[in-house]
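Example record

One chain of 334 residues, shown exactly as stored in the release files.
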Amino acid sequence: MLKFNEQQQIEDIQGALALRPEVEKLVDGICERGYDAIYYLGIGGTYASAMQAVTYINGKSALPAYVQHAAEYYTTGNRRLTKDSVVILSSVTGTTEEVVKAVKEIKQTGAVLVGFIDTPDSILAELCDHVVSYPNPGTEQLKFFMAADRFMKNSGDFEDYEEYYKELDEHLAVGLVEAEKQADAFGLKFVEKHRHDPMHYFIGAGNQWGAVYSYAMCYWEEQSWLRSKSIHAAEFLHGTLEVVDETTPVTLFLGEDEQRPLAERVANLLPRICGDYTFIDTKDYPVAGISEKYRGRILSPLLMHCVTQRIDAHIEKLNCHPLDIRRYYRQFDY
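Predicted structure tokens for this chain:
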């Protein structure tokens, strides 16, 4: 398989799960002091992960959790974000311009800044009050959800927290590797059909909305230089459906959380109006050892990432376009 190191990927997931005692201690300390709200801060891909985490919390608890866009914060501000707030962020390099500017302003409010920063000697690591470092950007969602789970456990919204993480510790890493193997043939077939699309629509809802948002923008547009658009499944039915015909490439991400019915509504419509649709459903990827009741939590987003990683590997190969090159991003000041 292209760009696939089975043992390394297992070790990456297990390494991220091993951060849990550190994350628990950090979150427990914040809960003991008290807080008025949780803000997940991001831009681009980290904003997408933030949306997934907050949608997840909103569906499972009454905790006051919000997504905060970094650039919107340093231009507009947010008067609800106070000295008693918790701000959670993630960065690979620790240098993302908009996040650095936002964090510098947030720091003046006195809010607690928690950073999952992959580069521990970076400016963002210096600015955050608490830093958890693990050099693997592919585990961002897992770390965001891990923090969310501990906050929910401490608020009484996650009674079987220990049982859940026992299953993840024992089965998640191998399960994701097996899912990626299963997805490889699909990924190749998908790329062979769509690698020259002039435009491609990606649709999703719930914890798949962040995945769709990120995949269209950060992967197809930024990395592969392919034109695409992400749209929420509910909003698709209020505008975008009118530009779809039998030739329009459309891919629908179906997850397993509370908003799955929104995606299923689109799935019921597409065969009637479109001749070039694809459904990617995380239900098609079994993971041994993980209870059915837990699949709608972190498993569903991570499974979708397994599928899209196979698409990306084949796009890179067949289009002869390395995914790490950029025309403009970080190439000069703008």
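Notes: The two ends are 38 Å apart (CA to CA).
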